[in-house]
Amino acid sequence: MATTTRTGDRVRPTYFPQLAAERLDIALCRASAAVARAADTHAAEEGLGVGQQLVLQMLDAVGPCSQQTLSEELRIDRSVMVSVCDDLEQAGRVRRERNPRDRRSYAVTLTDSGRQRLAEAQASIPAFLDDTFRSLTPEERAQLGTLLGKLLRIDA
């Protein structure tokens, strides 16, 4: 049963807490949307989009790879990946070169400028995460990571 809360002259329904408790799928969707908005806001302040930062981070970790591999691994739609790589290339953060293993495709390669920009962007991530997940204890954050890994079927 929904309840209400009086705020000044206004009565506000408080059904969502009940809904979230009953429907974990809805709660997770809403939490995900809230975190995504926070990440987008933070990224805008940093001047490097979330997708762009993820691409730079993966290239730094695994080396040159195709846009298709980036798209699949980062779970970014292929059409979106094209524009992310276009923007990074125009900014001098990555280069596209013929893939030596498959001459029909291109390998995306991190440039020194991209590596520097990634380091700058990553410096603010710990504070962003602390602020975004401030209502969770460190243990709860670790548990959330474990549970999300299970839901996403990631072997830890």
Automatic annotation (TrEMBL):
Alphabetical list of Pfam families matching this protein: MarR (PF01047)
One of the GO BP terms on file: response to stress
PROSITE patterns: HTH_MARR_2
Start and end residues of each HTH marR-type domain: 21-153
SMART domains: HTH_MARR
InterPro entries membership: HTH_MarR-typ, MarR/SlyA-like, WH-like_DNA-bd_sf, WH_DNA-bd_sf
A molecular function (GO) term: DNA-binding transcription factor activity
Protein name as annotated: Winged helix-turn-helix transcriptional regulator
Species of provenance: Nonomuraea zeae
Record lineage: Bacteria, Bacillati, Actinomycetota, Actinomycetes, Streptosporangiales
